[in-house]
Amino acid sequence: MFLMLKFVLIDTFVTKMYVYFQLILLLFIVVIDLQIQAYLNQLHQTYQRTVQLKHFGLSVENRNLTAIKISTGGNNRRPLIFIDAGIHAREWLGPAQAIYIIKQLVENSRLLKRVDWLIVPLLNPDGYEYCHVVDRLWRKNRSKGQGCRGVDLNRNFDFQWSQHSKFDHECSNTFAGQYPFSEPESLALSKILLEYAHRTKIYISLHSAAQSILYPWGYTTEVPNNGKELHRLAAKFSDAIYQVNFTEYKVGSAANILYLVSGTSRDWAYGVANIRLSYTVELKGVQSHILERRFQIPPEQIFSAVSEMFEGIKQLHSYIEGRYGY
Ligand SMILES: [Zn+2]
Question: Which residues form the active site (predicted)?
């Protein structure tokens, strides 16, 4: 009897603790998720004439996928720069960089005169929350599998999908999904990219931390037919960043600089949405053989990292403005 009571008590205690833990987790999740949403809403209130918010889908756990459109006019005919961030959960500098760019744009109308901007600051909100409260190194989204959770959204795009066997297992950190666009986050991004593809002159996907500017292809070491333009512009971009603090960004095709990879948003944007200037920007990281440290840029270095990168972004803008400005 005593023993049973003891078990029941332990069981009740464990159950209670589990419920408390879940509640605390939920509270954290709600708070973190709302910070970015609240900031975007605040910008919409403050800059009603230039800022529009577009909720273009829902994540696996039903969080809003939000894009911010920044435009001062032009009847939806101006060239557009499309930027996304946070596709990989643990690469926290991406969303920070996107928010910095958004802030600079709304406060600096010179960059809005002849070019529109569409920015998705957090494409994988479920994974982002999860790596804040449970596993700092979580990379994928949070979809349920047979035994493991999560699909690498940047392997799930429907272009040369799953070319490499290492993306086949659902427990792998780079699992490409059961089929192309199986995930609501990657599918939603592809739809909004297609909606704006006719006037998107540059697509940039922000990642970290390989400190490089990568153009197609990832699935093969060959380079597309406008490879020279892709390379020249990336070199200008990299030079502009270097001028600020002498930070060096490598430039090249993804397969040649990093590794062979298929089903990425960058290759899809180029190969399917036909956006001829398509880049993955791998932001600054920390040189370390410990994986976790590479994504943990010290807080005091964040401002210089995102502001020097913005000098590169301005270079891209002036290229687009000069060539296509409406
Ligand atoms: Zn990444």
Answer: 282 (proton donor/acceptor)
- Known catalytic membership, residue 185: no
Strand order in the sheet with 250-253: 51-58, 64-70, 116-120, 80-85, 200-208, 277-283, 212-215, 250-253
Spacing, Cα 90 to ligand 1 middle (Å) = 8
Looking at 170, 282, 308, 321, which residue is catalytic? 282
Query: How far does the centroid of ligand 1 lie from the alpha carbon of residue 92, in Å?
Result: 10
Q: Which tens digit of pLDDT belongs to each residue from 203-234?
A: 999 999 999 999 999 999 999 999 999 999 99
Q: State the pTM of this model.
A: 0.89
Domains and CATH numbers, the chain: 49-324 (3.40.630.10)
pLDDT digits (tens, 9 = 90+) for 82-104: 999 999 999 999 999 999 999 99
3-class DSSP state of 282: strand
